[in-house]
Amino acid sequence: MHPYLFHIGSFGIGTYGLMMALAFFAALALARRQGDLDGLSHDAVTDMAISVLIAGVVGSKALMIIVGLLTPVGGEGHMAFADIFTVGMLRAGGAIHGGILAAAIVFFWKMRPKAGLPLRKTGDALVPAVALGQAIGRLGCFMAGCCYGTSCDLPWAVTFTSTDAHELSGTPLFEHIHPVQLYHFGTNLLICGILLLARRKRKFEGQIFSLYFILEGLGRIIVEIWRGDLDRGAWLGLAWLSTGRLTALGFIAIGLLIWAFSWNRPPYTQPKAA
Q1: Could you tell me the pTM of the whole model?
Q2: Are the CB atoms for 267 and 205 separated by under 8 Å?
Q3: Which residue from 51, 60, 207, 220 has the fewest beta carbons nearer than 10 Å?
Q4: Domain residue spans in the chain?
């Protein structure tokens, strides 16, 4: 597709970066709107969103580096230590689940009830925005050619021809493949819609928070069927147990734990000022 919008000298301005910026602002707007419904502070939600974004960027790259270093030499996605410091690494988006896990850690760390950010209520407000941001970000993946699919003979198959996409992401060229990035886009958009609808009938605080992790995990396990780069980070010697599937199982476990923790707990009430 079009990994670069334009070039300034030899440095290319990436389409992926633009889509990630749009994803952040769209997600922030939705998070603030959802926060309003629960009386959360705009400033507190914005501060949380920026912190989560930074953690997400760092976590995505960190997981990509870890998986690359652990991938055997000759395997797709293998990374030498020297590759960490290249321009290609700077431009790479990373592994999305590493970003979400890092963002979740920062989210729990920054929870301050006295600042107007109760854990379960804030989680309910943020996760639809996370799903929306993921959906928009996947359009950036599609433009960049990363996270590509397996061979496909269906009418909606896509063919990448950009040598930039191949050099940056190993995207197969002149080959009909599944537009798996768009499958991710549709899945994340569907998850966002389900969360927004479920929030209207929320039975307890934390329900939407937990539901996001469960749905994201299930969606990733399914969409991985059509991923063409599954030999990246195959774990326990099992080709099908990719990093995406492994972290997806962890997501489902986290969602079930949050559900169990939140079920039948009393609603949060803001402490009265002394």
Answers
A1: 0.81
A2: yes
A3: 51
A4: 4-262
